[in-house]
Design a protein that fits this description.
The protein has 141 residues and is of the alpha/beta class. It has one domain. Helix content is 16%, strand content 23%. The chain has a six-stranded mixed sheet, with helices on one face.
Length: 141
Amino acid sequence: MVVKNSEMVKDFSKMKNPRLDLLVEFDDRTMVDLEMQLRQTKDNLPIRFSYYLARLHGSQELEGKYYGELKETIVLVFFNVNLIDNHRMCNTFTLKNEDGLSFVKETEDRMKIRTVEMAKLDVNKPLEEMNEQESKIVKLR
């Protein structure tokens, strides 16, 4: 894997110029933006991270290639706040319609936002009672 420049270059003067926390490209050319969000901000977090995903995915060099050659782009966000209204600590979001039907086959979906909501972790829960996701996150802390 290679750590890339985390500053997104503007394509035109009126664009935002965000700086990602950590941008990594793996050997298979998958791009992963790792973000750490400690608190809620005035900015709409889901929309901000969707913007990051779209910009990263659209920045791939594709001239003279087929769209099928696009590589996977993932924005992986670790939150220290509860943001998603469900009980799951980890969620993956992709392109789907209002009924949950995927726009592209799951195996071909190349744009994902993955969230880890650390605030949903019960740190007082015994390790042997934790599910796989919970125990992995406790080990990261």
